Amino acid sequence: MLIVGAKGFAKEVLEIFHQKGETENLCFYDDMSSGIPDVLYDQFKVIKNEQQAKAHFEKNSAEFVLGIGNPELRSKLAEKFQNLGGLLTSSISKFAEIGSFGVKIGEGTNILGGTRISNDVKIGIGTIVYYNCIITHDVVNGDFCEISPGAILLGRCKIGNHVKIGAGAIIFPDVTIGDHSIIAAGAVVRQDVPENSMAAGVPAEIKKTL
């Protein structure tokens, strides 16, 4: 397994694999950061160019997961590493609770521990669901979103693509959040939020257009 990224969020993803006992042949990729060692934690190789990544896919597994937090960058890296021969793969903590019926999780999604996802939930490609989130029945979540720790998405709400939902935010039932919007931490969203908007407050109001 190749984790794309070697800092920040990549460490969260590593813990998912460690808890599952799936770290054999696991390595990281980082061709941007300065000061990254060739081996992390005295155990995991860090690949630092595209040629090495392609060789890794050919020699080992083609699977890779996204270890970067920024939704826009995640989207670009997913395309880049698929073009190198990689297979975009999800990472789901064994401490997450996932509904048994009608749940669809897109490839490249990261779901961290303590999260609870109910039945008939759809999560799009490349989305991050951080620690202790709650996503209830019939929620539809778009591609390459970031749902921060403790956020709550209530029944039948719809989240667009490339949406960022801050820590502890609550999205009420039947609310729609447009593409490329940001919901601030702690916001309580009772009404629809247009695309390319930033909403904050209790109750949430549109603060600016992005």
Automatic annotation (TrEMBL):
Q: Per its UniProt record, what PROSITE patterns does this chain match? A: HEXAPEP_TRANSFERASES
GO biological process annotation, one example: lysine biosynthetic process
Give the Gene Ontology MF terms in alphabetical order.
Answer: acyltransferase activity
Residues at site: Increases basicity of active site His? Answer: D138
Residues where substrate binds: G69
The answer to keyword Cell inner membrane applying to this record is: no
Keyword list, A-Z: Acyltransferase, Amino-acid biosynthesis, Diaminopimelate biosynthesis, Lysine biosynthesis, Repeat, Transferase
- A single Pfam family it belongs to is Hexapep
Q: Which residues form the active site?
A: H137 (proton acceptor)
Q: Which SUPFAM superfamilies match?
A: Trimeric LpxA-like enzymes (SSF51161)
Which residue ranges does the record assign to the PglD N-terminal domain?
A: 2-81
| Family note | Belongs to the transferase hexapeptide repeat family.
- Family annotation (PANTHER family): 2,3,4,5-TETRAHYDROPYRIDINE-2,6-DICARBOXYLATE N-ACETYLTRANSFERASE, ACETYLTRANSFERASE
Specify the protein name.
Answer: Sugar O-acyltransferase, sialic acid O-acetyltransferase NeuD family
Organism in which the protein naturally occurs: Epilithonimonas mollis
